[in-house]
Amino acid sequence: MVTEFQKKVYKIVFQIPKGSTLSYKEVARRAGRPKAWRAVGNILASHKIKGLPCHRVIRSDGSIGGFKGSYQRAKEKKALLKKEGVF
């Protein structure tokens, strides 16, 4: 079951343009729960939505953070962002 908060997070993330990023904290704020940045991370770590550009969500300090829970995947996230001109 997908919650209303999850739906809001997915909608926000789908709207992040190529070459741009938002922080987990900013996604949480835009979804109406400004202190729920960890929840945003958990939602993105466990989604099954094809094409969701969750690689565009990074930490507030500008570091990339995790990507579906593994170091190798985090390297993939950085490569995707680099390809889009973020780094």
Report a brief summary of the structure:
47% of the residues lie in helices and 5% in strands.
Largest sheet: number of strands, sense, barrel closure: 2 strands, parallel
CATH-derived architecture: Orthogonal Bundle
CATH superfamily, by name, is Winged helix-like DNA-binding domain superfamily/Winged helix DNA-binding domain
Fraction of residues in helix: 40-55%
Name the CATH class.
Answer: Mainly Alpha
User: How many structural domains are formed by the residues?
Assistant: 1
Key descriptive features of the protein:
Arc Repressor Mutant, subunit A, two-stranded parallel sheet
Provide structural commentary.
This protein has a single domain (19-83), classed as Orthogonal Bundle (Arc Repressor Mutant, subunit A). By secondary structure, the chain is mainly alpha-helical. The model has no long low-confidence stretch (mean pLDDT 91). The protein is built from four helices and two strands; from the N terminus they run H-E-H-H-E-H. It has helices spanning 4-14, 24-30, 37-46, 71-83; strands spanning 22-23, 57-58.
